Batch of 3 targets.
Target 1
Amino acid sequence: INKTRLGYDYDLEKLQAKIQAVLNDSTQVIFVAETNNKVVGYIHLVNYDVIYADNFKNCLGLAVDNDYKRNGIGSALLKQAEIWAKENGAVGIRLCSGVEREKAHQFYQSQGYEVTKLQKNIKKIF
């Protein structure tokens, strides 16, 4: 799903290690949607607790397999994420979405999310 939906071609062993780390970290969560014992979608959240705002949860990824899109899976994952966020002291969920992902933006807005600012993603790789 990461590769086909999000464009992230990441080493499987590294991915498995990262998932295990998330499962062992109470500040993060991954919810998955399954159909016939196959993962068809997921959402990953982590604390976003900065010193200048109330605690949010940061959605680091939400993806649904192409064959299962438009069946309510993304909405159900987002709803579960919101429940977890509230239960864990957050006032809301924030996320970043690439400017080219217009359908994703429409989806989030249909779920009550609003665009609050545009920004550049800046990083340095070592």
Note: The radius of gyration is 15 Å.
Target 2
Amino acid sequence: GVSLPTWLLTFGVSTSWAAWGFGADSPSALIMNIGGALVNGSVVVAIMPSTRRAIIYLLAITAVLWFLILTLPDAIVSALLIALVFCLVPQVLESFRSLRNGTTSAVSIRALAVALLSNIFWIAYGFVTKTYLILLTSGIAITMILIVMTLELLTQRKIRMEKSWDLR
């Protein structure tokens, strides 16, 4: 139930925002997103069968994204960062399949709650710094997280109801 493409994209999002933070002289964005990239990268390493291949992928993604973020014009970088925020789409689809099939997934509601809270803080940061790109991307991320949380909670409820019917 955990989507490798989602975690690779999430890693890419953190890496991109770290590069953006570096280019924009924003230590907050740089440091927090390096931390996020390390966490997301560790999940990718855990999911992939080959640690060596996972590390090669992560390093390649990092190099390409940092190069793009630091060299492309601001309008293109903004478009890329907005596009990357849709990284949860594969997880939305996976969670929808889990709901439809009535199967459990490995998605953690607590981890989603942490991601939700993190994006709420980024929205506050976006307001304080008047960084509309952060406001937009965090708003989209919150929406996607809430969709996944809802689908996962509905799946858990469906499974509990099916089990209670089986016990009767």
Note: The chain has a mean pLDDT of 90.
Target 3
Amino acid sequence: MRRAGTCDDARGISPLIGVVLLVALAIGIAGVAAGGLLAADPPEPRPTAIIEAEVEPATDTISVRHVRGDALDPAALSLQVTVDGTELDEQPPVPFFSADGFAPGPTGPFNAATDTEWTAGETGTLRIASTNDPGGIDSGDQVALTLVYDEHVLAETAITAG
């Protein structure tokens, strides 16, 4: 005959207590993780924009038009240019007024004196100087542009100079 409160009773309850403690611990950890996720600010959505570009080989001019989409901060832009698969030695430091490898006085969002936003309907132009390598755009050249906004590629396009 067994007496109440013996060691045999304690052994029967131990696994149950262990399971209850593990479930409570798992619920606590899940609650802390969920609270941390809810407290974090959601990331800002990336802007979207439709961009068109044109190249004028007679003047070595590149024109980039913001067709539609979000307004863009020119200070957050960068432009990478290749001509026939060769990156320009000097890339335009957007925005700028005078820079190595480019004719002074770009327009629109490429100009340092621009408005604070580049909006739909506005066009920016810049001219490659002969001191850049390659030093110009010839008819038939393939010009590729990559427009980057806040370190994210916003648009990529390739144009054959006419």
Note: The helical segments are 7-39.
